Backbone:
């Protein structure tokens, strides 16, 4: 569990690094420019790491399902070789899959004005800058997005449906609490990530106004990764005790 969580954290660091430094530089700069190559490099790495994050959430859901539903067989099934294979799969899938839409969109004719009304090189504003409307590229991109996001989300839901059934069969109340506590943080992260991403790219009315697109993108690209370490650290007893002390102190000051 901790090997997968460590890799997931590293993916998130890379995911945030692809956009936040450039975004902060644009806030401080007057030019706010980015080259064609840099823009598409950001586009590729941002979405590749984003897909990798989705795959890691699936792998972590599978790991928790295996640990709770088949606890006695877990050491035999989750071998070092399988764990290594899952880690490699989680890192490589996004980079392989997202290569196709990046190549297709980069081949579109761009004749200006080359001004992206966004703080990242998002595919929708990029395709809006194209001189010709390529329906094939748009179809490939939107279909790939929907299939992968819905498939990974359904896999996570099925894994947790099995976990809930296994937990409900447990005779011990302490065992149930421990199992739910193990899964609660991961479910919270899944809800934050997939909630915003699916509203942006999968929902039927995904052609949102530009301002709404920026807000949703900011949520899943900056706010969600910012919240994830806090969510996972809430499983730590010392962290919980420290937060309780903070809340008690603030309540005491409020009463004074």
Residues:
């Amino acid at each position: 569990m901790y090997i997968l969580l460590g890799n997931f954290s590293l993916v998130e660091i890379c995911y945030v690094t692809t956009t936040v430094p450039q975004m902060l530089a644009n806030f401080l700069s007057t030019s706010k420019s980015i080259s064609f190559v840099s823009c598409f490099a950001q586009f590729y790495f941002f979405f590749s790491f984003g897909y990798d994050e989705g795959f890691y959430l699936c792998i972590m859901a599978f790991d928790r399902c295996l640990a709770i539903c088949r606890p006695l067989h877990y050491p035999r099934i989750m071998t070092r070789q399988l764990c290594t294979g899952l880690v490699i799969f989680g890192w490589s899938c996004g980079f392989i899959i997202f290569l196709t839409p990046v190549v297709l969109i980069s081949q579109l004719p761009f004749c200006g004005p080359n001004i992206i009304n966004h703080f990242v090189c998002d595919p929708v504003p990029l395709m809006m800058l194209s001189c010709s409307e390529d329906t094939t590229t748009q179809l490939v991109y939107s279909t790939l997005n929907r299939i992968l996001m819905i498939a990974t989300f359904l896999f996570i839901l099925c894994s947790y449906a099995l976990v809930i059934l296994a937990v409900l069969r447990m005779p011990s109340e302490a065992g149930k609490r421990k199992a739910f506590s193990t899964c609660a943080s991961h479910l919270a992260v899944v809800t934050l990530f997939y909630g915003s991403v699916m509203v942006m790219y999968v929902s039927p009315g995904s052609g949102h106004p530009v301002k709404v697109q920026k807000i949703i993108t900011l949520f899943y690209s900056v706010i969600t990764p910012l919240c994830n370490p806090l969510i996972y650290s809430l499983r730590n007893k010392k962290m919980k005790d420290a937060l309780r002390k903070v809340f008690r102190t603030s309540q005491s000051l409020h009463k004074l």
